[in-house]
Amino acid sequence: MSAIDLPKRLLHWYSVFVAVAVLVLICSGGLVTSHEAGMAVPDWPNSFGYNMFLFPVSKWIGGIFYEHTHRLIASTVGLLTLVLCATTLMIEKRSWVKWMSVIAVLAVITQGVLGGLRVTEHNPVLGLFHACLAQSFFALVATIALVTSKFWQTISSVESNDIILRKSRVSAIALTVAILVQLALGAAMRHSHTGLSIPDFPTVYGGLFPPTTSEPIAKINAARSPVQQPITAGLIWLQYIHRFLALCISIEVIRSAIRLLRQPRLLSPIRFAAAGWIGLVIVQVALGAWTVWSNKAADVATAHVLVGALTLMTGVLLSVSLSRILWMATTPIGEINHAAVSRA
Questions:
Q1: Is 104 helix (H, G, I), strand (E, B) or coil?
Q2: Does the pLDDT value for residue 125 go beyond 50?
Q3: Is there a contact between 128 and 188 (Cβ–Cβ < 8 Å)?
């Protein structure tokens, strides 16, 4: 390894570390929601009047433990992101990568403010935006790790059917957007704090379609526990659409990934990611079913959030990598060489 390569490799592996830290943060947030602990600490940025970082460990009990540790992990991720940005600005030559690191800082600041306002304003809608931004932030940091990797430099045009690659890229992008929408629907379900709107799977109250008229919904609410908030037709439809979209996404991810696996000239990491995408959606569907069967057990629901984040990340990285391949295939060699020189 040459001396000039060392800083760039360190930047790449540090960005991987930050991405893993963000994933831990997402899991922590999932535990907060799954344990209904979002308001366990009623003030912000302090914790029960204490400085957040001086809050006594002896008071970390019950839901307070999940909410307070989530805040500490979030603060750590914020600091790591600032260091990532500073390091990128010093080491990277590509202006667009520098801008990505700046956007990451803006995103993590916004994320922290949204989390705080969710507490002080008692507004669950802010919690929904907080959850969606967390997934997007994770994908952004993972993309920084990708474009600073040695693999990114080795990507070249592929002697394959350009039409198939273009279809694969369009499909990957469309599926990634659909997965983000699906994660937003899941976040809306979690932040409604009404439990399971549809308590059985794969059936829906014993049938194929959800009950949406006032009489059956009134009977459903009468049979629910008195401590549970009542459900509405809108909440039932929300979970039903979440299930239907999960089925559609799973089928299309498998089809799109198999199409990539049938391209033998693609680099092995891309083929591996395509195979991993199939595995992730299968596990995600299984965890979704398990979440229902376990009556939203906190650990199972959090694992569902974790795999959802990894599924989104895989879609983003595949979309970016395929875009890179097609750019290399359509860009004059002179422009590619000029870009390579500017990075040196």
A1: helix
A2: yes
A3: yes
**d(Cα 343, Cα 76) in Å, to the nearest integer?**
31
- Residue 3 — very low, low, confident or very high, per pLDDT cuts 50/70/90? very low
Predicted pLDDT of residue 156: 66
Question: Of 301, 258, 305, nearest to 279 (Cα)?
Answer: 258
Helix axes 298-330, 124-147, angle to 10 degrees: 40
pLDDT of residue 240: 94
To 10 degrees, what angle do helices 298-330 and 233-261 make? 40
The CA radius of gyration of the chain, in Å to the nearest whole number, is 22
Query: What is the three-class DSSP state of 289?
Result: helix
**Could you give the CA distance from residue 234 to residue 40 in angstroms, rounded to a whole number?**
27
**Rounded-to-integer distance, Cα 61 and Cα 135, Å:** 28
Question: CB pairs under 8 A, 24+ apart, for 225-233?
Answer: 228/194, 228/195, 229/193, 229/194, 229/195, 230/194, 231/194, 231/195, 231/197
50 forms beta bridges with 47
Return all residues near 10 (Cβ < 8 A) that are at least 6 apart: none
104 contacts 84 by C-beta, under 8 angstroms: yes
Task: Provide the residue ranges of all domains of the chain, joining segments of one domain with +.
Answer: 1-152, 155-344
Tokens of 127: 């919690």
Measuring CA to CA, which residue among 323, 318, 277 is closest to residue 96?
323
Look up residue 221 and give its two tokens: 């609410």
pLDDT of residue 158: 61
Say how far apart CA 295 and CA 202 lie, in whole Å.
Answer: 14
Average pLDDT, the chain: 89
271 touches 260 (CB < 8 A): yes
* pLDDT beyond 50 at 123: yes
- Nearest residue to 164 (alpha-carbon basis) of 255, 273, 250: 255
What stretch of H or E contains 257?
Answer: helix 233-261
pLDDT band for position 343 (cuts 50, 70, 90): low
Strand partners, 204: 207
Please name the amino acid found at residue 315: G
